[in-house]
Input
Amino acid sequence: MISKHCRLQKAQFGKLAFFYLLFVIFYLLFTLMTAIDKQKIAILLDIASERLSSGYHTAEKEYLFTDDEPKERTADTIEQIAQEIKVCRNCPLWEKRTNAAPGEGVLQPLVLVIGEGPGEDEDRQGRPFVGRAGQLLDKMLDSIGLSRKTNCFIANVVKCRPPFNRNPYPEETAACANYLERQIALLKPKFILVMGVIAAQSLLQTTDSMKKIHGKFTEISVGGMRIPLIATYHPAALLRNEEYKRPAWEDLKLLHSKF
Ligand code: URA
Ligand code: SF4
Output
């Protein structure tokens, strides 16, 4: 009788110990995870529970995990920023994206090129400026000795494609600005070349037309650095209108004269 009671107690103790161990393992795993890992798990659980209950997935929720360890933020890298962008839901553009295009190129570039946002090809490939406008951009850069393979980094003000290639709304560029700021602070480019009026207006906080904005350098302050910035016509605008080719070429020559 006594030994049966003991066996029962032992079994209960074993169960309790097992659950306690499980709890400790999950607790440790959770504290070791970054905000991105937590966000991924939350999204996964969310999709799983919706599928189980209704058979459909209609996730639209936002998860606001922050890294508990402030140390992680000091270890900011271009790769880390790219990982965050890929799972970002800070503005509604995440809903329609196939892939975010965080940016690509060399670290510490001579020139950081900043466009408006991914188009259809960029959304499919998760890379910036790879469609027709991108091919023209590569030619324009090449004409003054620049390339994303050797001395440039290419990014956009928004990292997810606006539906039907519409201009990004100010709330969307504002929501995405932190990624670009962190990219600039890490990359420390010698110059910034902005492609197109939408990106230029957003970065220079102006409503002026490209006719007024282009053709001169403006210094911008990011992370304690002052970086000379020049804006010119978007390659997509050059494809639509031959008239912009001349002033765009003048802008590129002006940039080239500085290095
Ligand atoms: N247009 C942009 O502004 N950026 C891209 O990445 C592609 C097209
Ligand atoms: Fe996040 Fe920027 Fe994509 Fe909006 S556009 S979801 S802020 S990465």
Summary: Strands lie at 104-105, 111-115, 152-156, 191-195, 217-222, 225-232.
